[in-house]
Write a structure and sequence with these properties.
38% of the residues lie in helices and 14% in strands. Helix 6 links the parallel strand 5 and strand 6.
Length: 396
């Protein structure tokens, strides 16, 4: 499998500045192909969706193309792709919709490994209807999630596919099996996962899978994938004249058409990362497997270098994880490291990054640590630059 990182980097205008971007977990850089697609859409003749005028058809085609592209990315069904402003917004919307059928004493399961966007919406709707919130912890020493054990009162289990703070990838297939045996639904936050691994929603066992294109080279919006038959059974609040068709009944207001054009371009960009034949889904899978291999190799190099630095604690320790490391320092504030690295043109921010329960459970309070995220465009030279800069910071 051929992965040419320099050829990949040449397609990103922002990478010509010399900045080393280890901040991908907060949003990836954008290839020219995506920006060009957004520009073309915004300067074209567009209108509200329809099939009468040419402008209406062009807009409708953009939406349909985005649904098909995202279905290929996630190995899902185009008719089950719901589009929204963000993963947070979509999760709140679905939490309110699903909770309509919950009763006092019903249970919702959340984890301390998750971004707050897959915690607080469920906690808040549970409180509103009198449902019980059950928490699943993780082992701070290993980063591994504790077993998830739904009961016959569990209505939904909310879990991340990969921690955005420490990278842990829980055993989703096992969690899905236990969830479905209990008659509950599984809501998976795949925002961090989708940037690093090929996604197969059915294989993961997710009833709902949410992600964000801006984490995988695209524009800022959110995406949810589900079985259209499951979506048909849900009745969200919506405007009276808006369509009742699935998936449109879940999409409030006018969609960001130009961003959807950019999203299709982002999926096509991923499909072309590694040369080869096949349909778009096959090419996406091949490319993301190559990305995972590239990032995994760099992660090993980075971890080996960190072991030689005094006073550094790496909190990312799970056996299965993304190339995302959370660091703290014996005698230094992570925020100081963040600022120091910025003077070296290295972007690696510090904080808890909305994974507030994770940070607190690690004993780091709300401050978190320095998060170093590798991406498809990361290189050996950048890793070496980072390690040198961290060594200088610790010596200073």
């Amino acid at each position: 499998m051929s992965y040419d990182v320099e050829a990949v980097r040449a397609r990103f205008p922002s990478l010509t500045t010399g900045t080393a971007h280890f901040d991908g977990p907060g949003g990836s850089q954008v290839p020219a192909r995506v920006a060009d697609a957004v520009h073309r859409a915004m300067t074209a003749s567009l209108a509200n969706r329809g099939r009468v005028t040419a402008a209406e058809r062009a807009t409708d085609d953009i939406v349909l193309a985005a649904r098909h592209a995202l279905a290929d990315l996630l190995d899902a069904t185009p008719g089950g792709i719901v589009l929204g402003r963000s993963a947070t917004q979509l999760t709140y919307d679905f939490a309110r919709t699903l909770a309509k059928s919950w009763e006092p004493g019903d249970e919702v399961v959340v984890t301390r490994l998750d971004h707050d966007a897959n915690v607080r919406p469920w906690v808040q709707v549970a409180e509103a209807v009198g449902a019980v919130v059950r928490w699943v912890d993780f082992d701070p020493a290993t980063g591994e999630l504790d077993p998830v054990a739904p009961t016959d009162r569990t209505r939904l289990v909310a879990v991340t596919a990969a921690s955005n703070l420490i990278g842990t990838r829980p055993p989703l297939a096992d969690i899905a099996r236990a969830t479905h045996e209990a008659g509950a639904l599984l809501y998976v936050d795949g925002v961090h996962f989708a940037a690093h691994h090929a996604v197969d929603v059915a294989e993961l066992g997710a009833d709902f899978f949410v992600c964000s294109p801006y984490k995988f080279f695209g524009p800022h919006l959110g995406v949810l994938a589900a079985d259209p038959a499951l979506l048909e059974a849900l009745r969200p609040d919506k405007l009276l004249p808006s369509t009742d068709a699935v998936p449109e009944r879940f999409e409030l207001g006018t969609l960001p058409y130009e961003l959807l054009a950019g999203t299709t371009a982002a999926v096509d960009f991923i499909a072309d990362l590694v040369p080869g034949d096949g349909d778009r889904r096959a090419r996406v899978k091949r490319s993301m497997d190559a990305v995972a291999e590239h990032e995994g190799r760099l992660r090993a190099v980075l971890e080996e270098g960190l072991r030689d630095l005094p006073g550094v604690t790496v909190h990312s320790r799970a056996a299965l994880r993304t190339p995302t490391l959370l660091l703290t320092f014996a005698d230094h504030d992570p925020a100081d490291a963040y600022r120091f690295l910025a003077t070296r043109n290295i972007n690696a921010p510090a904080g808890s990054f909305y994974a507030i329960e994770t940070s607190r459970h690690l004993g780091l309070g709300d401050r978190g640590g320095l998060r170093v995220g590798l991406a498809a465009y990361s290189t050996d030279d950048e890793v070496a630059r980072l390690l040198t800069a961290l060594s200088d910071f610790l010596d200073g």
